Amino acid sequence: MVSRSAHWWNNGRILALLAAACFSMKAIFVKLAYAAAPVDPISLLALRMGISLPAFIWLAWWAGGPPLPRGDWLGMAGLGLMGYYLSSLFDFLGLQYISAGLERLILFTYPTLVLLMEALVRRKLPNPRVWAAMALCYLGLLAAFWHDLRQVGDSTVWLGSGLVMLSSLCFACYYMGTGRYVGRVGSSRLTGLSGAMACGFVLGQFMLTRSPAILLDLPSSVWVLAGATALFSTVLPIWLAARAVERLGPSQAAAIGTIAPALTIVFGWIILHEAFSLLQLAGLVLVVAGVVALGKLK
């Protein structure tokens, strides 16, 4: 008889792998939605966050906790603004112009931005080994960027890469901010509250700039892909990652999560028929090696 602890939903490594796979599919779903119909990023993002909103509210309710002071509510709003609203908006905008693989590699470098922000706050430069690890990351990004530039052959790759880099910067700001509140609020409640507020920002922007009739005119395929983005690449991986951290600890769970860029590139090659080259492979290896090295140097 198989014990309850042997089930996959109690295996930290399987949970971490599933979380990485779900996160890696986000760019694939978004690119498929862009290909299915002429949908703009704000409308697609509104669909994603509108479908995600009930799950974020439930997560905040399920986590429970005492009433929050006004300052913490403002903090949740700020985290939602940076982490799930602006970061997602720049990401969706950038995915119009670059491959899913390059997008994932750019987002994956957010730890380097966190380290640079910490250095600014502490007014202390990183040590040479940290600089070397960051150099690996950006050398890999340069290789992956050159791969996309050769495939597309125009300046839109610069625009898309810049937008996704802004997305990574916003997520780094969110990551920095969580350290201030997670101890008081709790990780699940923080995620639920900041996510729900981000949904409000996104839906508010949509209502101010678009007509709701736009969503009704979209084909069912876009709704299905937006739902998949919300459920399988937003809500589910957050839950899976939280359970994986509970069982493995943050370091080991994060180490397993480094497979996400490779999965995005593989999914992009298989599902989107994106070009693959040794240059892109070299970029992947360098970025992952740099991020892993940074994790060990912290």
TrEMBL record:
It is a multi-pass membrane protein. The keyword S-adenosyl-L-methionine does not apply. The keyword Cell cycle does not apply. The chain crosses the membrane at residues 45-64, 76-98, 128-146, 158-178, 190-208, 220-241, 253-272, 278-297. It is found in: Cell membrane. Keywords: Cell membrane, Membrane, Transmembrane, Transmembrane helix. This is DMT family transporter. It comes from Chitinimonas arctica.
